[in-house]
Amino acid sequence: MRGQTVEVYATSTDMLQLCKEFEESFEYNYAFLESYDCPKVKVCAEASEIDLFWTSPSGFLGRSILLVPKGDEPNSRPIKLKAGGIRYDLSPMDVDRCVVLQEGGIFAQEDCLISGRLANTFTDDWSKSVFSALSRMTKKQFKRTGSYYLGQEAKSLFDNGFRLTFQSSAPRHSDLSREA
């Protein structure tokens, strides 16, 4: 199966509103794709529990967050370090089913909004139905501009001169334009 994606420009407010409504329809947790000191994976039940949710402090795509079914415990994988010791890593390969949110968000240092995405590469029924429902809800609540979907607050920022781009250091000619 080819991967499915929905590209979005959204603020934290836009995404929290979308996720809150979506959390009422599906039972899932948020797990973080990152490296850990211990085998325990950080999991949150609601998007509102996530620190700095959907922000871009670095000026490019942020964290990847997995939506995993409630009851599924994501297992991290041990990675032996050359310098000694072990880190624990979580990736989509370590779970049986999930949908991925790759965070974008406001990069305030340059008045720009970084694009994010919703993605699915899994073929199981849960992942397909969750991605399908989330992408439908996104397309219903966000406004399409070119191949992107803009949240309400993101559209307001765009209308007020914010750059909408995939990376703050990208040339301005690659920004989302009104003609898109």
Quaternary class: single chain
Strand order of the largest sheet: 4-2-5-8-11-1-13-12
Tell me the structural class: alpha+beta
Largest sheet: 8 strands, mixed
Number of strands: 14
Report strand %. Answer: 25-35%
Task: Give a brief rundown of this model.
The chain is α+β, with helices and mostly antiparallel strands and 180 residues long. It has helices spanning 12-23, 125-141, 152-159; strands spanning 4-9, 28-32, 35-36, 43-44, 64-69, 77-80, 86-89, 99-102, 105-107, 112-114, 116-120, 143-145, 148-150, 163-165.
Overview of this protein structure:
This protein is an alpha+beta fold and 180 residues long. 21% of the residues lie in helices and 29% in strands. The longest helix has 17 residues, at 125-141. A hairpin with a 5-residue loop joins strand 6 (77-80) and strand 7 (86-89). The radius of gyration is 17 Å and the shape is globular. It has helices at residues 12-23, 125-141, 152-159; strands at 4-9, 28-32, 35-36, 43-44, 64-69, 77-80, 86-89, 99-102, 105-107, 112-114, 116-120, 143-145, 148-150, 163-165. 34% of the residues are buried. It has a domain at 4-26 and 51-67 and 96-174.
